[in-house]
């Protein structure tokens, strides 16, 4: 197992603003730091499950079925699209003062499902992780845990910074902007994924 090589390879992926990052900041805008923890727990469980499935060889079996992989990708795109629309709608309502600040945030289950159906996460754990993990299940779980720790630290740092900044600004406006921009990012990701799926 090459944990140092894995950390170097995973850093750009874990630190790039993706769906989990967007959802965490949106949750922080709505419910403070406890909102970020929901996304971290859901995403972390998803990453660990990917590591477990690849370590057991189950993901490799699923990858050989084009129908299964296509189904997972379509479900993932639809789920990402739904979350994006949910964030944009929530942001628009906050912006027009049509809802109280106690808007619903993304749950642990939703963050988990988003990660499980994320085609990029599946491909990452099928292609990149085996290079560094070797053949032991414990190695896959250790690398997945390392991935979770890096992702969690990064999201927590930004969430804390956002919490401090939010206190000095108008909460509804900041929350609305985060939700609209974040939802727009998720919608863009879902459209990009749909186009990639269509043209592959």
TrEMBL record:
Alphabetized InterPro entries for the sequence: LeuE-type
Chief location: membrane
Superkingdom of the organism of origin: Bacteria
Cellular component per GO, a single term: plasma membrane
Transmembrane region(s): 6-25, 37-59, 71-91, 112-133, 139-164, 176-199
Protein topology in the membrane: Multi-pass membrane protein
Subcellular location: Cell membrane
Keywords recorded for this protein, A-Z: Cell membrane, Membrane, Transmembrane, Transmembrane helix
Gene Ontology molecular functions: amino acid transmembrane transporter activity
Name this polypeptide is given: Threonine/homoserine/homoserine lactone efflux protein
């Amino acid at each position: 197992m090459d944990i140092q090589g894995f950390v170097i390879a995973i850093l750009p992926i874990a630190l790039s603003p993706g769906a989990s990052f967007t959802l965490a900041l949106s949750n922080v805008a709505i419910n403070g730091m406890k909102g970020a923890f929901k996304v971290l727990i859901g995403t972390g469980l998803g990453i660990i499950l990917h590591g477990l499935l690849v370590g057991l060889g189950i993901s490799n079996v699923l990858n050989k079925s084009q129908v299964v992989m296509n189904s997972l990708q379509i479900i993932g795109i639809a789920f990402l699209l739904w979350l994006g629309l949910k964030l944009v709608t929530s942001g628009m309502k906050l912006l027009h003062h049509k809802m109280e600040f106690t808007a619903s945030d993304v749950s642990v289950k939703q963050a988990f499902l988003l990660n499980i159906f994320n085609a990029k996460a599946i491909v990452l754990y099928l292609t990149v992780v085996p290079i560094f993990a070797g053949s032991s299940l414990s190695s896959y779980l250790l690398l997945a845990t390392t991935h979770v720790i890096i992702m969690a630290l990064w999201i927590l740092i930004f969430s804390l910074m956002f919490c401090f900044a939010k206190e000095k600004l108008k909460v509804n406006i900041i929350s609305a902007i985060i939700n609209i921009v974040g939802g727009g990012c998720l919608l863009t990701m879902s459209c990009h994924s749909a186009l990639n799926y269509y043209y592959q």
